[in-house]
Write a structure and sequence with these properties.
This protein has 4 helices and no strands. 7% of the residues are buried.
Length: 122
């Protein structure tokens, strides 16, 4: 039952991200970009990579593989923020990406400390 919930949630998330990537609102995208097709292709590649990372997180044989998958997902989210910042000409997406990078780094450190069996203050 839990796997069914994961599959349903993942399919809904991928459907929403696909709609956003291929049919964006006209207000959100700066229309005078000559390389808009490149941004759409970049988002679709990042979504494909995110699918593979989610597969590694769910099916990873060791917990270190799961942590590496989560870290890769954080990097892909930063890439999406960068692409959105370029396509919308708004800089606050990069602020979100920087904050996400910091949070991803700290969470990776916390997970590795937890796997080693140490406290956070050691």
């Amino acid at each position: 039952m839990k796997t069914l919930h994961y599959i349903i949630g993942l399919s809904i998330l991928l459907a929403i991200l696909t709609v956003i990537a291929f049919f964006p609102l006209k207000i959100l995208i700066y229309q005078q970009l000559d390389f808009l097709w490149l941004l759409k292709r970049g988002i679709s590649i990042i979504l494909l990579c995110a699918f593979f990372c989610l597969f590694r997180v769910l099916r990873g044989p060791t917990s270190a593989d799961r942590i590496a998958g989560m870290d890769m997902l954080g990097i892909l989210i930063i890439g999406i923020c960068a692409l959105l910042s370029i396509s919308t000409k708004r800089t606050w997406y990069m602020d979100i990406g920087i904050a996400w990078a910091l949070q991803s780094f700290i969470s990776t450190l916390a997970f590795t400390k937890f796997l080693e069996g140490k406290d956070f203050d050691e």
